[in-house]
Amino acid sequence: MVKKGKMIVLGSLILSLGINFFLIPDHILDGGIIGIGMIVNYIWGLKVGFTIICLSIPIFTLAWFFYRPYFYNSLHGLLISSLSIDVLQGLRAHHLPLEPAVSSIIGGALVGGGIGLMLRVHTSTGGTDLLAQMIADWCKVNVGFIILAMDAIVIGASGYLFSLETLLLSAITILSVGLVTMTFTSSRLLPETSS
C-alpha cells in the first residue's frame, strides 16, 4: 500500500510537471478529461484540476456501479493528480523557452509517464483514464491504445476552437502520451508492482 501511494504521488507530480511546465504555457492540449480541463482553463480561466474532478464524477459513478475496485483504486489518483496540477500551476510562469513542438513531445512524455506509473499499480487519474482502464479489461486491449483513441476524439472534437498549429501540436502531445503510456503498461516490462 505504501509503494502504491508513492507511485501515485510520483506519477501525479510527473504528470503535473508536464502539464504546467510544458503544455499550458504554449496553449497545447492533452486529450481526455485532462484536455477538456485545459480547454476550460484556456477559455474561462477555471482551474484544470478542479475541472477534472467535476467532469470525472459521472465516470466514477459508472465505476461505482459496474467496476467498484477501479473506483476505489482510482479515487486516490484522481484527487492527488488534480490537486498537484492546481498546486503546481505556478510553474507556468517559469517554463523553458522551447519550440512548441519540443514542449509538446516532452510534456506529452511526462503526462504519459505519470499516467503509466499509476496504471502499473492499478490506479489512474480518473476521468477517461479510468474509463479506458475499464474498457481495456472488458475488451482485452492495451489501455494505452484506448487512451490514445479517446485523446484523439477530444482533440478532434475541440479542434475548431483553436488554430491548426495548436491542433497539430496537441496531436503530437497525445501521440507522445499514448506511446509512453503503452511503454509503461507493456507486459514486457518488469512484473507489475503489487498494492
Question: Would you mind describing this structure in some detail?
Answer:
- The chain is mainly alpha-helical and 195 residues long.
- The protein contains eight helices and no strands.
- The chain has helices spanning 2-23, 32-44, 48-66, 68-87, 100-120, 127-139, 143-158, 164-184.
- α1 packs antiparallel against α5 (100-120), α6 crosses α7 and α7 (143-158) packs antiparallel against α8 (164-184).
- The chain is globular and about 40 Å long.
Helices and strands, with pairings:
Blueprint (H helix, E strand, L loop, with lengths): L1 H22 L8 H13 L3 H19 L1 H20 L12 H21 L6 H13 L3 H16 L5 H21 L11
Helix pairs in contact: 1-4, 1-5, 2-3, 2-7, 3-4, 3-6, 4-6, 5-8, 6-7, 7-8
Write a compact overview of the structure shown.
Helices cover 74% and strands 0% of the residues.
**Range of helix content:** over 70%
What distance lies between the first and last C-alpha atoms, to the nearest angstrom? 5 Å
Shape: globular
Number of helices: 8
Radius of gyration: 15 Å
Largest sheet: none
Give the mean pLDDT: 87
**What series of H and E elements makes up the topology?**
HHHHHHHH
Structural class: mainly alpha
Question: Total number of β-strand segments?
Answer: 0
Strand percentage: under 5%
Low-confidence stretches: 190-195
List keywords for this structure.
195 residues; mainly alpha; 8 helices
